[in-house]
Amino acid sequence: MSPVLSVQNLSVAMKGASGIVPVLEHLSFDVAQGKTMALVGESGCGKSMTALAIMRLLPEDFVVTSGRVLLDGENVLAAAPQALRGLRGNKMSMIFQEPMTALNPLYTVGDQIGEVLRQHRGLGRRDATEQAIGFLKAVQIPAAEARVHAYPHQLSGGMRQRVMIAMALACKPKLLIADEPTTALDVTVQAQIFDLLSELQDDTDTAIVLITHDLGAVAELADDVAVLYAGRCIEKGSSQEVIAHARHPYTRGLMACVPHLHLGPAAANVQRELEEIPGMVPPLGARGAECAFLPRCAFAIDVCRAQPQPPLDVVDAHAAVSCWRHREIAP
Amino acid sequence: MNLLIHMTKQAANAIGLLLAVLILNFCLIHLAPGDPALVIAGEMGGASADVIAALRVKYGLDQSLLHQLWTYMSKVVTGDFGYSYYFNEPVVNLIGQRVPATLYLVISALVLSIFIGTLLGVISARKPNGWLSQGVTVISLAGYAAPVFWTGLMLLLLFGSVWPILPVSGMSDVARPKSGLAHLVDVVQHLILPSITLALVFIAQYSRLARVNMIDALTADYVRTARAKGLPEFIVIGKHALRNTLIPIVTVAGLQFGHLFAGAVLVETVFSWPGMGRLVYESILRRDYPTLLAVLFFSAVLVMTANIITDLVYRLIDPRIRSGPR
Amino acid sequence: MSTMEAPRAREPSALPSRPAASPLAAMLRQFGRSPAGVIGAIVLLALVLITLLGPTFYGIDPLDLAGAPFTPPGADAWLGTDYLGRDILAGLIYGGRATLTVGGVAAVITIVIGVTVGALAGFFGGAVDTALVKLTEFFQILPSLLFAMVLVTLFGQTLTTITIAIGVVSWPTAARLTRAEFLRLRNLDFVKASRAAGAGNGHLILRVVLPNALPPIIVSATLAIGVAILFEGGLSFLGLGDPNTMSWGLMIGQNRNYVLDSWWTVTFPGAAIFIAVLAISLIGDGINDAINPRLRKRG
Questions:
Q1: Is the pLDDT reported for residue A148 higher than 90?
Q2: Which residues in chain B (245-264) have CB-CB distances under 8 A to chain C?
């Protein structure tokens, strides 16, 4: 079965005063129907840019410099404006990090959900509102008949994110991109939103790209995971495999930051050293060809400095990693 | 219900402020150098000694100041703003005759400036560094710096002698019919130049304001959401971004109604437009103080009304103000 | 994730190498980088120099009947004469003195009243604030030009009255601005610290809060000069200028009835006002940019 979404060799760069600076380099991954792919990494590593590039919503100064994004075999990046509008909100949709600002404060939530249906399904205002109530119920908003006339400022953050989800799923898209959908919410609400997403996915068979730095969510929701660091994919595989046998020092570091996830068998002293990752993601424009994690890596040796970052090395059917020393670190 | 309470508060506030304006007027009459009776009569109004004596009795000018204030206020409340000896008419009648012309001018200029200003701002915001955007910056600087009476005079020169296609004086042509469609066309033709002159100043400000706010709105998350929903560009801009852009413009337009009115005084004088501004000019020329002070009061009434309307429009556009959190 | 990240990343390396300078010097340096502001400053300086030094080089008195009425611009009078035969160029030179002086002094009055009212309201809050806000609101519902006209009509057409009238009607904008700044600043830690250290209210207002509220007030003061010049023009245009002192507004006001026969009599003084106000608002923009460099692109 061909994947719903196939991202191939995607690169994004920022046009600055000092020329073009790469933000995302040669990213490839596939997501099949009903499956969830998680993109993981610290902020500034290119996760959101990936999402925006897929939706073709990159901010003005950012450009795609290479690659294709195939949605059901159609290259989104080459779609004409008209065709692109037909895809957005319809075959692919997105929910954003900040439910506080992602909804227009001046229109009712019913109007904003109905808008999608009026646009893509040609529904009239009344029918669209009718259906919007149904979707509000589906995302478990109580008193949906009344809330459909509410304005965003009258709803809590969690409810607004539910509205965003209702809006995104209104046209039964093949692909849903969720860009840190719970970061701005309370911890208890976070779990509810993740549960809701996975329930809805079971019903609709939507493919999901989940962008998160929450490895707990990855373990729970994602089938596959790609770990990004400084715009490069440094490890990827099935989420079970990656969580059980993290191979890249950065992934292992991330893992060690999450208290309830346990690393697979590795040298005990290694784990302690990595409990928090020292330093910061290198800023844009300060990234050379060598491994970007190098300055923070406890395992760095001469080859890491002398050679450019290695390509993703397929370890087995479920995992690939980009590290010179992965065999020594996680044999 | 919420709205009713709010409106009542607004009305009470308005009445309080207007009473204060009356007190100010009273104080001005008495603080001005010279005989208050003369001030009330109007220096060059040609009021005879009898009239002055009558005024002294009427306003109780030999009584205590507080008593005089009371007399003045109670007259005003019954609509008696004094008598213009120059125009030979009660001041209230004079103002009543002049208000419509001023409203035509002010409202047409307001509509024109909001519409064109927003349009220019929105178009230029889409390419913040394009030539149109630079043009809007230049226009808004120039529109701000050019004195409105001078712009008016320059247009008057242009259309009065160089290129006489538009009437440059008055409100209608003596030779044309005084009723029906022909009259309307006539008045609209006369309105064009004054209205554009007055609007230019505000087009300058609103285009700049609209541009800044539109640039903000276009990078807002909800606009990105609208795009992510696959909405066509005219809905993204015309519905989602525009309404958010209009809020500050409405606010500023409401706040500036006084400036608009003051501009109208100058523009009416340039184009002999028979409104309150022209009345102001004539009463200054004749030292007709009752008329001048009454115009000050009624302009405050207009500004007050404009503020209340702005508040209502603002509530209409922005639900966050209209309905509190649930 | 924002587009601001890259430029911000460069800044830290640039900062330490600079010597710590006073905020004013830093502002001045920033101002120098704003082409609009620099152009405005040069133009305004040129205008001031012309009005100061002009009489030395151009010996015609602006109130003298120097030639035949309505002489067009040419060899007899470079910029022509007005309806009485007074020289327009002389009027521009001398009139500029009056107009710019009225603008400057009225702006000072505007700012002094506005900052005082705004500072007291914002600093003390409570009943003081309520009362002063009401006062401001009261002045705002009176169309300021109209109010100034009434004042000048009642109290006499002298340059002094005109200047005071303009100042008295224009202060609410500055008051609102100052109040907002004071409200924002009064609860910040450094103010609290000074208060805890025993500073009195006067000291707190003038020496602690005001200096920090100054940047937007400076912009407002600059723009107030332009507004005052426009007001002087408007008043004179309506016949409320000081007939004994030549000013740009007065030239327009006295000649406007003959505009169709002698375009030069109003065009030049109006252009002078235009250029002066334009220069001032460019300076204002420049200062604004210097204060908020991040907003520069938006202007």
A1: yes
A2: 255, 258-259, 261-263
CA pair distance B43, A291, nearest whole angstrom: 90
What values do phi and psi take at A26, rounded to 5? Answer: 50, 55
Question: Within 10 Å of residue A131's Cβ, how many Cβ atoms?
Answer: 19
Q: What is the DSSP string of A286-323?
A: ---SS-TTGGG-TT--HHHHHSPPPPPEEEETTEEE--
State both tokens at C87: 């020289």
Q: What are phi and psi of B13, to 5 degrees?
A: -60, -45
pLDDT tens per residue across span C60-116: 788 777 777 887 887 777 788 888 878 888 888 999 999 999 999 999 999 999 999
If you average pLDDT over every residue of chain A, what do you get?
Answer: 85
Each residue of B198-221: pLDDT tens digit? 999 999 889 989 988 998 898 899
Tell me the chain C residues in contact with residue B303 when contact means C-beta distances shorter than 8 Å: 140-143
Contacting residues of A for C3, CB less than 8 Å apart: 14, 59-62
Q: Is C9's Cβ below 8 Å from some Cβ in A?
A: yes
Low-confidence spans in chain B with pLDDT less than 70: 1, 42-47, 323-326
Rounded-to-integer distance, Cα C260 and Cα B168, Å: 11
Chain B positions touching A164 (Cβ under 8 A) are 225
Among A330, A329, A289, which Cα is nearest to A310's? Answer: A289
Report ipTM (2 d.p.).
0.87
Are A164 and B225 a contacting pair at CB < 8 A? yes
**Would you call C3 an interface residue with chain A, using a CB distance cutoff of 8 Å?**
yes
Asked if residue C96 lies in contact with residue C272, where contact means CB atoms within 8 angstroms, the answer is yes
pLDDT, tens digit, for every residue of B236-295? Answer: 998 999 998 998 998 888 888 888 999 999 999 999 999 998 898 888 888 888 888 889
CA-based radius of gyration for chain A: 21
List Cα–Cα distances, C241 to A52, B270, C202, in angstroms.
62, 16, 39
The pLDDT score that the predictor gives to residue A114 is 93
Name the pairing type of β-strands A5-16 and A62-71: antiparallel
Lowest mean pLDDT segment, chosen from A256-270, B236-250, B262-276, C267-281: A256-270
Flag whether residue C6 sits within 8 Å of chain A, measured between CB atoms: yes
Helix, strand, coil percentages (3-state) for chain C, rounded to 5, are 75, 0, 25
Type of residue at B208: R
Q: What do you get for the CA distance between the two ends of chain A, in Å?
A: 33
Residues of B with CB under 8 A from a CB of A: 219-222, 224-232, 235, 239-240, 243-244, 317-320, 323, 325-326
How far, in Å, CA of A130 to CA of A54, rounded? 31
Pairing relationship of beta strands A62-71 and A74-75 according to DSSP bridges: antiparallel
CB B317 within 8 A of CB B142: no
Q: Which of B141, A49, B16 is CA-nearest to residue C223?
A: B141
* Distances, alpha carbon A16 to alpha carbons A13, A22, C6, C296, in Å: 9, 10, 8, 17
Tokens of A80: 């004409």
Which pTM value belongs to this model? 0.82
Q: Domain segments of chain C: what residues? A: 51-293
Residue B174's contacts (CB-CB under 8 Å, 6 or more residues apart) are: none
User: Collapsing DSSP states into helix, strand and coil, what is residue A232?
Assistant: strand
> Within an 8 Å CB–CB cutoff, is residue C1 touching chain A?
yes
How many whole angstroms separate alpha carbon B236 and alpha carbon B222?
Answer: 9
Distance CA C94, CA C62 (A): 7
CB contacts < 8 Å between A and C, how many?
Answer: 24
In CATH, which of 3.40.50.1820, 1.10.275.10, 1.10.3720.10, 3.90.380.10 is domain C51-293? 1.10.3720.10
Q: What are phi and psi of A316, to 5 degrees?
A: -150, -165
Nearest to C168 by CA among C154, C181, C179: C154
